[in-house]
Amino acid sequence: MGNLAPRWLCLVFIFAAVVVAHADKALELRYIMYLTGQHDVVPEQSLVANITHVALAFMRAEIFNNPGHNEWPLFTTIDDARPKFAKETVIQVAIGGWGDTKAFSTAAKTAESRNIFAENVKAMLDATGADGIDIDWEYPGGNGEDYKTPGHLNVDKAWETDAYPQLLAAIRAAIGPAKTISAAVPGLPRDMLAFTPSTIPSIMASVDFLNIMTYDLMNRRDNVTKHHTGLQLSIEGIDAYLDAGVPPDKANLGLAFYVKWFKTAADVDCSAHPVGCKTQLMEDPGTGADLGKAGAFSWHDEVPFDLATSFAKALENGVYDEVGGGQYYWDGEERLFWSWDTEEAIRKKVGVVGKGKGLGGVFAWGLGEDAPKFDHLRATNDAMKNLETTGEEVGESYRERSEL
Questions:
Q1: Which helix (H) or strand (E) holds 7?
Q2: Would 380 be classed as within a structural domain?
Q3: Total tally of structural domains belonging to the chain
Q4: Range(s) of the domain holding residue 346
Q5: What share of the chain is helix, strand, coil (3-state, %, to 5)?
Q6: Residue 238: inside a domain, yes or no?
Q7: Residues in domain GH18 (predicted)?
């Protein structure tokens, strides 16, 4: 009997240590990078040492709809990707992407189709050794690239709102609790058709976290200029999910390592108010087709020849909007509105939103897009390391400016 007390004390200490260890793990911020086939470039390990997750993009969704499929085409392999990052980094396969909507609709349609898709996801994870998946069905319920195509109108896709969480549940049941499931989701409230207070609980029951795409917040469907990755618009997008019931620690803030441009209307002088200025028609009103009046390129890309002079002016003369929170420039000669994030804009966005909202992490599209200098990656590294103090200081400063 005399030895029981020390043994029980040992058990208590062990239990307490396990609880603390799990608590520390749960509190660790996620730091996620998409690595794309378009820009398959990874810098030296010192720059990616703190990245917790890497999502390899993309594997097409359509291949998961074929029963018994056993080929998994991707621009790289899990074995090739792992040594480029820290040993504990979670390597995911991102499935889908912008425009890859039809295959997801097919997958989600019935219980049988959902199970086929889910079993193929399991087979892919078993075959490749990936640690999980990122579901990039970006616009369930409508507003995808084909939203004006007959048979693919929003009214035709209303059923997807209920089918989307069912597909996620089928995948979770197939792959089990140990593998990671994340989902890339729209950053604009107008696109959050499948993400409502009634659907969020069932969605979150299957996924580990959401990558909220707080970029492309201006796109060709808009008719006035705004910051495509702006701070205030990002807050509005994050708030929409939190208000719908997403736990803050399950939400990740999105960053864009690329630049966007938009053509402004010929009959309007934007010099006095470049933000909120009328654009040219950028999308065909009948078909939804891109009219070529907007575009984007990454820091890795060569600047298109016809845009190079204007972009050089933007880099030299661009300003940060202290109200909306975004770097911009309007070129009156070319009638081009430029929107992008500087390193300082990234630090502010991560500090204000990450700290202010208590989010679970940050992600960026994408790692190789920031090559060869990786200046925006370095800025994000700094912001993540200093999130505690940066969030408090920048957040207070931003709130004071917003109240003026």
A1: helix 4-27
A2: yes
A3: 1
A4: 29-257+341-402
A5: 40, 20, 40
A6: yes
A7: 29-387
